[in-house]
Structure formats: C-alpha cells, structure tokens
Amino acid sequence: MRKLFLLSFIVLAVGFVYVGAGISGDASDKAAKLWSSMQDAKYQDNWALWPGKGKMYKGQHPHGAFLTTYINEIAANALNSGVKDMPKGSIIIKENYMPDKKLGAITVMEKTGDGKDDYFWVKYMPDGTVAVKEVEKDGKKMSVTLAGTPKGCVGCHVASVSGIYDIMTPVK
User: Fold this and answer.
1) Which of 15, 137, 165, 172 has its Cα between 20 and 30 A from that of 80?
2) 3-state class of 16 per DSSP?
3) What was the pLDDT predicted at 159?
4) Which stretches does DSSP call E strand in 19-145?
5) Using CA atoms, how far apart are residues 50 and 76, in angstroms rounded to an integer?
6) Bridge-partner residues for 109, per DSSP?
7) How far apart are CA 82 and CA 101, in angstroms?
8) What is the pLDDT of residue 160?
9) In whole angstroms, what is the distance from residue 91 CA to residue 110 CA?
C-alpha cells in the first residue's frame, strides 16, 4: 500500500510539473527529435555559418557574450537568394557562449510553416536537455520549459520589419 501511495504521489507530482511547465507532449517530442536530427546532421561540421559572421562573434542579450550561428541548406539558400522570410524547413542554430567562452546554451529556430511567425523555438542546455526557466505567476512559482513558442523568443524575433535579417538584430 505504501509503495502504491508513493508511486501515485510521484505520478501526480510529475504530471503537475509537466502541466505547469507550459510544454505540450508534442513540443517535448519535437524538441527531442530536433536535437537528435541536429546531432545526426553534425551541424557544426556540415552547415554554413550565418553570412558575414564567423565563429565566436560578439553577442548580445539574451543569447550570450559570444555567438556562433549555423544555418541548414534551406536557410543558406534563402539568404543567398535574398528572400525576406525564411522558407519552411529552415533551421537556425545559435550557440550561446559565456564571457569565458564556455558554451552556455544552444537556441534553435525551425521554420515549420509558410506564415511569417510559423517557427518552433527551443533552448537547449549544452547537454541537449531543454532549458527550463523558473517564473512566478499569481504568487505561484512554476517551471516553464523553453520549447514551442516561448514568449521571450517570439516577442523579440517576430517583430521583424525587414524579415530574416532582423533575426540577427532583434527589435529593442
């Protein structure tokens, strides 16, 4: 009986944290698959860097003191052709480094549809786990998992006036 109670408690606690985290099962699964596909693609070896940016260029809040930005072939072709908006299937991976040049996080944007705002966003920790942010709402503390459409990502990037180039210089 005690084991059943403990198991029930754990299941409910995990369910509460999961619901409170603000991430759906779909977003969690998508984040895991995206991480796996990034590793399979060996993006650091095989993908282009953002045009005009090398590795470890000076960054800005909220990403990091230094950044390296990789783009898949779809995104590279779009940038080279001068389109205003990224096409579906474009992936932008930004490695976010701390002032000591240690990797702090990896933020990813994947264009999932044809609309201007159709992106899947995710912030990974260096080990590939999805980042979690602690927030307080209505006096209650909760963990928010940063995958799907996190308000911080969307609010900064979708305010674009000049299209994909604002991805690199967010609106203040």
Assistant:
1) 172
2) helix
3) 64
4) 48-49, 57-58, 66-71, 91-97, 103-111, 119-124, 132-137, 140-145
5) 8
6) 92, 121
7) 32
8) 60
9) 4
CA distance 171 to 163: 11
* pTM, entire model: 0.77
Q: Do residues 122 and 130 touch, judged by C-beta distance below 8 A?
A: yes
Q: Position 19: which residue type?
A: V
114: Cβ–Cβ under 8 A, 6 or more apart, which residues? Answer: 87, 88
For 147-159, what is each residue's pLDDT tens digit?
887 666 766 766 6
CA–CA separation, 146 and 163 (whole Å): 23
Structure tokens at 22: 């603000």
pLDDT tens per residue across span 47-67: 999 988 899 999 877 788 999
Q: Rounded to an integer, what distance in angstroms lies between the CA atom of residue 19 and that of residue 137?
A: 14
Residue-range domains of the chain with CATH = 2-167 (3.50.70)
- How far is Cα 149 from Cα 30, in angstroms, rounded to an integer? 12
